[in-house]
């Protein structure tokens, strides 16, 4: 199997950008007074190629997988929590499922490589590459063939989703570790600056985790190509997410990115095709150490900063209402001229 990148063209459209900005500037408000909501409206218009953008059938996808590296004690929770939380998602009891239900967001959970076999049921897609990755402190997390298989799973998954918005979520005990490794290697940063508490490690636990991750980086010292980094140190759920991001970008969907792990997937995708970032809206700045550094690598301005570090896609679900609000401002808010309201210079 040979993986081929989807074609993702630049969205640069100066005429549309000027039209959108002109609309925003002439709404019945002081210039720029809606702040980041105006920048969001402009971005959504450019992604969807319209000066009257509409968001249809938003889809939250939670990508789940296990990690062999957890055997090295890099997480406060055992790997079994991954499959148990998948069951919780499917039962509707997790934070992200509550929020998705509240906001009318479609919900899909994907078994990308959980160390457990699930009974088929609605809302679950089985796209399993393996029962968890290998321990990347002793060997590559996955083979190149497995990595490409996961990428293709993500591409095919998105092809089957309705709507024009993809919200990214994830579940995988230990997956802050591969996210930290990806950031450190692709961002050329010290691993200590990229490593945080994850699911709740104390300071000695973070120090042990950092030592293990430094060992992993030394083990794979010559690996620098984005796909090779993904295969050597990533996860099945992260690789599947990379494929999904690439396909969503190719289809010109809005990609609403959650926290640290989903941003790591977007970092890999953007190093493969930089135009991916034109389709992305970043939901929030999380409380996970390293996320601010990762957002800086992506040149991202997140919508929220609530100190979240749950993952799952919870931050994306919380940020979601801002997107239809931004579109409604463009479509429905009156201009000074249409409302007969005087501007600063007295014109109507």
Per-chain topology:
Elements: H1 14-25, H2 36-48, E1 59-65, H3 80-91, H4 95-103, E2 106-113, E3 124-126, H5 144-159, E4 165-171, H6 176-187, H7 191-194, H8 203-219, H9 226-233, H10 236-250, E5 254-257, H11 260-272, E6 280-282, H12 291-297, H13 314-319, H14 322-332, H15 336-339
Parallel strand pairs: 1-2, 1-4, 2-3, 4-5, 5-6
Task: Please give a structural write-up.
This protein has 15 helices and 6 strands. The chain is α/β, with parallel strands linked by helices. Helix 10 (236-250) crosses helix 11 (260-272).
The number of distinct β-strands equals 6
Put simply, the count of helices is: 15
First-last Cα distance = 63 Å
| Low-pLDDT runs | none
**Which range does the strand content fall in?**
5-15%
Helix content: 40-55%
The sequence of SSEs as H and E is: HHEHHEEHEHHHHHEHEHHHH
What does the overall shape look like? Answer: globular
Largest sheet: spatial strand order? 3-2-1-4-5-6
Brief synopsis:
The protein is an alpha/beta fold. It has helices at 14-25, 36-48, 80-91, 95-103, 144-159, 176-187, 191-194, 203-219, 226-233, 236-250, 260-272, 291-297, 314-319, 322-332, 336-339, and strands at residues 59-65, 106-113, 124-126, 165-171, 254-257, 280-282.
Provide key terms for this protein.
348 residues, globular, alpha/beta, six-stranded parallel sheet
């Amino acid at each position: 199997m040979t993986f081929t990148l989807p074609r993702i063209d630049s969205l640069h459209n100066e005429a549309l950008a000027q039209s959108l900005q002109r609309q925003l500037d002439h709404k019945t408000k002081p210039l720029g007074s809606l702040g980041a909501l105006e920048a969001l409206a402009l971005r959504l218009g450019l992604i969807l190629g319209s000066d009257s953008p509409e968001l249809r059938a938003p889809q939250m996808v939670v990508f789940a997988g296990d990690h062999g590296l957890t055997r090295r004690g890099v997480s406060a929770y055992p790997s079994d929590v991954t499959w148990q939380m998948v069951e919780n998602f499917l039962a509707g009891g997790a934070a992200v499922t509550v929020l998705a239900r509240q906001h009318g967001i479609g919900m899909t959970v994907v078994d990308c490589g959980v160390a457990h076999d699930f009974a088929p049921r609605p809302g679950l897609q089985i796209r399993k590459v393996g029962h968890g990755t290998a321990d990347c402190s002793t060997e590559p997390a996955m083979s190149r063939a497995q990595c490409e298989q996961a990428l293709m799973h993500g591409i095919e998954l998105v092809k089957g989703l309705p709507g024009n918005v993809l919200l990214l979520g994830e579940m995988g005990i230990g997956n802050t570790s591969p996210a930290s490794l990806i950031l450190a290697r692709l961002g050329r940063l010290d691993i200590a600056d990229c490593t945080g508490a994850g699911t709740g490690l104390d300071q000695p636990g973070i120090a042990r985790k950092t030592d293990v991750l430094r060992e992993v980086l030394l083990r794979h010292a010559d690996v620098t190509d984005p796909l090779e980094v993904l295969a050597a140190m990533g996860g099945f759920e992260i690789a599947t997410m990379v494929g999904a991001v690439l396909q969503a970008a190719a289809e010109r969907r809005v990609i609403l990115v959650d926290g640290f792990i989903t941003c790591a997937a977007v970092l890999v995708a953007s190093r493969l095709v930089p135009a991916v970032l034109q389709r992305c809206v970043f939901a929030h700045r999380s409380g996970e150490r390293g996320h601010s550094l990762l957002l800086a690598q992506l040149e991202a301005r997140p919508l929220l900063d609530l100190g979240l570090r749950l993952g799952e896609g919870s931050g994306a679900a919380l940020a979601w209402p801002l997107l239809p609000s931004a579109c409604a401002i463009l479509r429905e808010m009156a201009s000074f001229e249409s409302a007969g309201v005087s501007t600063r210079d007295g014109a109507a």
